[in-house]
Design goal:
heterodimer, A: 201 residues, alpha+beta, five-stranded antiparallel sheet, four-stranded antiparallel sheet, B: 353 residues, mainly alpha, 2 domains, 14 helices, 78% helix
Amino acid sequence: MSFLTAPLRILAVALLCAAALIALVVREGAARVSGTEIVMRMEAVDPRALLTGHYVIVALQEPLDNAPCPPGLGENDPGLGDNAWVALAPHGDHYSVAGVAETREGASAHGPLVARGGAFCTPARPKTDGDDGFPGALRAELGTERFHINQQQAERIDEIMRGREAGEPSPVSAILSIGQDGRARLTGLIVEGERVELALY
Amino acid sequence: MAGYKERVAADLDRWIADGRVDPGQREAILASIPDARRLDAASALAWIGAILLGVALIAFIAANWEGMPRLARFAVVLGVFLAAAGAAGWSAHKGRAATANALLTFAALAFAAGVGLTGQIFDIVGEPRAALYGSAIAAALLAFAGGASGPAIVCLVLLGIADFLEPGGGIDQMPWLVIAAPIGAFLALRWKSAPLAHAGALGVIIAFIWFAAHANNNGAPMLLFFSVWLAALAYGGRVLSLQGRDFGGVFYGWFAWGALALFAAAGYAGGGAGDLGIVHRLAWLGAAGGLVAIGRHDRHALVSAAGIIGLIAAIAALLTDLGLDLIAAAALFFLAAIAALVVGLILRRRAKA
C-alpha cells in the first residue's frame, strides 16, 4: 500500500467500511420489500431492556388443536435442528408450518413457501383421568427472534399479552417477509389488528 | 515512586561518595538522561474536559436514542466510526503515531459495535459469527492502513470469539486464528509492538485449543500433539530471546505456558490417550520442574511462573489420583525429588566442565 500515505489509506478504509455497512442496510431493506409477506401467530411476548435496548421476543408458536405433527416433525422423524428448510402454508388468516425437510426441494413438496430455519412439534396428548391433556404445539425458528421497538410500545404489548385469558388466541402476530434467498425477515407486528412496522423516519 | 532519572541521581551520589565516579561528571551524566514526560495542569484539565465532554455526549445520545428516527441512529453510528477514523488519519498526518494507534483501535471497536447496532436498528437477521468476522476484517484493514497494532489486536480478539461461537462445528471448519495469529506475531516483530506479540502468541495457543476442542474423541492425542508443537515454538522463542531479538522472550514465555497447559489437559481429555494416569502426572511434574529450572537459568519470569504453577497443579493432581494414600504419595514425591537432585547435579557438573 505504498502508493498512498497512511492518512489517505486510513480514510479510504474507513469509507470502504462505512459503504459496506450502508450496502448491508440497503440490501436487507430491498430483500425485505421484495419478499413475500406472510403473517404468523406468535406467543410469549416479552419486552426487554438489556444491553441491546427494548425488544419483543418473537416466538412463532401456535397450538396444534389436536392435529398430528406436520411431515418431518413426527416422533419417528430424525430431528433436523434449526438448520433445515421449513415449509409454510396458509392456514385461515395466517401461515403455519406445513412440514420440514433437509433440502429446499424437499420442503417445497409440503407448502408453497419455504424458509431457512427449523421447526419443532410437541404432539397432542389426549385427555385421560389423571391428565388434562395437551392440544399440542408447533414452533418455528426462522432466525427472527427479536423485534426492536421503543419502550412504550414494548410495554403496551406486554400488557396486552398479560391480560389475555388462557386458551384465547394470541392478539399479537408477526409479519414476515420471505425472500428469494429463503431467509425470513421480520417486517413488523400486528397488535390487536394494528400494524407496528419498521419505520425509517 | 522515583523516576529513572531520580534513581540514577541517587546511584551517582553513592558512587561519587565511594570514589567510583568523578563528581564533575554528575551533571553531564544526568543531563544525558531525558526528563520523563509530565502532564502539566493545563494539559491534564484539557484531557479531563475532553473525557467529560465525551461522556456528556454519550449520555445525551443514550437518553434520546429511542426517540431518534432509525436513520438518525444509523447516522450517529456511522458518524462516530468515521470521526474516530478521520481523527486517526489526521493524527497520522501530524506524525502522532501513538494517538493514531489509539484512535484506530477505538474506530475498530466502534465499527464492531456499529455492526451490532445496525442489526438492532434495522432488525436485520444475521449470523453473529458473520458479524464478528466482518468486524475483524474491518479491524485488520484499519491495522494495515495505519500500520497500527491496536486494531490488529482487536481483530485477533474478534476472531477468537467468532471461532468459538460454533460449538457444533467440525474440525473441517478451520479457525481463522490459525492464519491470523501468526500474521499478528509477524506484524508484532515488524511494527515492534509488545502488546501485539502477546496477542499473537496467545492467538496461536487458542487456535491449537480450538483444534483439540473440535477433535471429537481424539482430544488427548491432539492435545499431546499440539503440546509438542508449542514446546518446539517455545524453543524457537528461546533461541530468538538468547539472540536478543525483539519479543523472543514473549513468545518463549507464552508458548512454554501453552505447552505445559495442553500437556496437563491431555491427561484428562477423551480419546485413545485419555486419562494416562500416574505416568502422565509424573511426566507433568517433570516438565514443570524442568520449566522452573530453565526459567531461572534464563531469568525469564513468565517461564518460571509457568513451571511453579505447573508444579503446584501436578502435585495437587497426583494427590487427587492417589486419594489419601499418603505413603504412596510420599514415595512418589521422594523419587521425583531424587530425580530433580540428580539432574541438577549433572547440570552443575557439566557447567563446571
